[in-house]
Write a structure and sequence with these properties.
Distance between the termini: 27 Å
Shape: globular
Radius of gyration: 20 Å
């Protein structure tokens, strides 16, 4: 395998009819820059890891995902399975094609500017980035771990993700699923009894949601930096009034989430979760499930070669 030949994994958006046209735009941008590449397409989210492993095992040194945060998360988990010597030779890139593209947007990769993204990727400017890591016990009681580029959500936000997924499987529409999940929230619990340890602080009380971010965390950890060896944590207590909840959503949308009085931010290298009342856990846009405590979240410094803009 020539070292300059890219392995490209295209992850179509579910329910989007313009997928073929989207790939044709990517193809034109690659051809314009005379990029040599081989291309595979995922059939489902479950196939992403299998295809990334295939690209790694076939010796590709540049692997580019046309996808979103979840596909990137699958890719880095595959890279963490190989030896550090092999991982050091591989650079990971992204052409954003997800729902939110939060990690790509952090680096100023925009879904609407495909040619600009390809131009940057061709320059092959590499930055080593950190990964967060959730260490827990699986259903069989064995030690397990899962890595993330962006964030882990515990509690309400993970439940919203689950409701949206269920609604979409029934309704088939992304838009209808979104509005259905909003309606279902009116009948949903808003707090979980949690016991957390962050730095020297112990939190033992009802908590609405926790976000641990190595990256921007979909606005919940807006100051997180994916290369400083630290994790940003936002612990959100339940607002006293419903109006405060809507105010928090507005601050989240406008990038001022940390200004809400119910949000308590931290910066740390490790979060110990002794008890989270089996709250759901979401990782980079995918559900990890309900975890029995205790489990912990740590950071792995500069372990992935990521292609960044100029």
């Amino acid at each position: 395998m020539r070292d300059d030949r890219w392995g490209i994994l295209y992850c179509p958006k579910k329910g989007i009819r313009a997928d073929r046209k989207r790939w044709e735009k990517v193809q034109r941008a690659l051809d314009l820059r005379q990029v040599q590449y081989d291309f595979v397409q995922s059939e489902s989210s479950d196939s992403v890891e299998r295809l990334v492993r295939m690209l790694i095992n076939n010796g590709y040194k540049t692997i580019v995902l046309v996808g979103g945060d979840s596909a990137l998360s699958d890719a880095v988990n595959c890279l963490m399975e190989v030896s550090p010597e092999v991982r050091e030779t591989i650079a990971l890139g992204v052409i954003p094609n997800g729902v939110l593209n939060d990690f790509a947007r952090y680096w100023d990769f925009k879904e609407s500017e495909i040619q600009q993204t390809v131009d940057w990727l061709v320059k092959h400017r590499v930055r080593k980035v950190d990964l967060g890591c959730v260490r827990y016990k699986d259903e069989a009681g064995n030690d397990a771990r899962r890595y993330f580029l962006n964030c882990v959500n515990i509690g309400l936000i993970a439940d919203v993700m689950n409701q949206r997924r269920q609604a979409r499987s029934l309704l088939g529409s992304r838009t209808l699923a979104f509005f259905a999940s909003i309606v279902m929230m009116a009948f949903h619990r808003f707090d979980y009894k949690m016991h957390l340890k962050i730095n020297a602080d112990t939190i033992d009380r009802n908590v609405m949601t926790v976000c641990v971010g190595s990256g921007p965390g979909y606005g919940q950890t807006p100051h997180a930096v994916p290369y400083n060896g630290m994790l940003d944590v936002s612990v959100v207590y339940q607002p006293m009034k419903l109006a405060h909840l809507f105010a928090g959503l507005w601050l989240l949308v406008t990038g001022r989430f940390l200004n809400h009085k119910s949000v308590h931010p931290y910066r740390t290298r490790e979060v110990l979760l002794n008890d989270t009342s089996r709250a759901r856990v979401g990782l980079d846009g995918r559900l990890l499930g309900k975890l029995d405590g205790p489990y912990r979240i740590t950071v792995e410094e500069e372990v992935i070669n990521f292609l960044i803009p100029d």
